[in-house]
Amino acid sequence: MTQRRALLGIAAAIAAPRLAAPALAQAAWPNRTIRLVVPFTPAGTTDIAARILAERLTQRLGQNVIVENRPGAGGNVGTDVVAKAEPDGYSLVMCTISSSAINYTLYGARMPYRPEELAAVGLLIRVPNAIFVHPSLPVRTLAELVDYVKARPGQLNIGSSGIGTSLHMTGELLKLDAGIDLTHVPFRGAGPMLQECIAGRIEVGVDNLPSVIGHLRGGLLRTLAVTTATRTPALPDVPTTAEAGFPRVEATAWFGVQGPARLPRPIIDRISTEMNAIIKEPETARRLLELGGMTPDLTPDGGTSPDGFARFVAAEVEKWGEVVRRARVTVE
């Protein structure tokens, strides 16, 4: 009962400012530059998706939407900037499965923000993760990789874009399911990780498909599997982890938009409406598909409505919290 009252109190605290927000919402918004914070380094999937969205929002809103990279702590640094920002519609964050779901359990009491400090706006895309190796490694399937690693326990590295990201957790799921010993090497974003993989200093990598697909198609890295239940049209010849014999290694990364908790509902609805329109644009859909992105259909109403996205995020917090506990992942 005490916990329920506390939750009701949080909900009331969030809702109360929205009831008093009409004056702000009636102002001419937007009338200046909007910043879309990417809590990771440039060149990763979060950054790529954010720049596609920012370009289209700039044209549709009539004001510049600039991408601001604020990496650190698995997405916590940049996300916290927006969670603590003025709720005026000029500070938004490109949220991810890590920064808005996994990290709450992973960082625990050290999290600088809580779910109730962020307002859901909408889901943009979801993408498969790809498991790949440097071409010099003598393996061509995921099963061959597992056998290769079992013969060399602890000798090979697996790279990700940071502790607690869906890429890290995908690697942990593979280690648990296959019973293999790989040393996790986290980086501050996909860009630095891919550089090391291409150079051969990291033997195995996991990345969101949009940021690695060019290297996979170009032969700089060899794809072993994608982590979705079905094959992706972007790489139709690449098997899924289930087809490779590891059905429990399934992870779909997602990217959406959140703002400060007390962001006025009219502004939330306006951004959400524009996002919905952008997703349906043939050219934007083509660009996202070429990157390996999939339509945001994970929630009952597509995930692109604020309420639908809020429910989806809450479910993801619960789901990935269980994975973190099961894999016993911690941050120092």
TrEMBL record:
It comes from the Bacteria. SUPFAM superfamilies: Periplasmic binding protein-like II. InterPro entries: BUG, Bug_dom1, TAT_signal. Keywords: Signal. It holds the Pfam family TctC. The keyword Disulfide bond does not apply. Residues 1-27 form the signal peptide. Gene3D superfamilies: Bordetella uptake gene, domain 1 (3.40.190.150), Periplasmic binding protein-like II (3.40.190.10). Belongs to the UPF0065 (bug) family. This is Tripartite tricarboxylate transporter substrate binding protein.
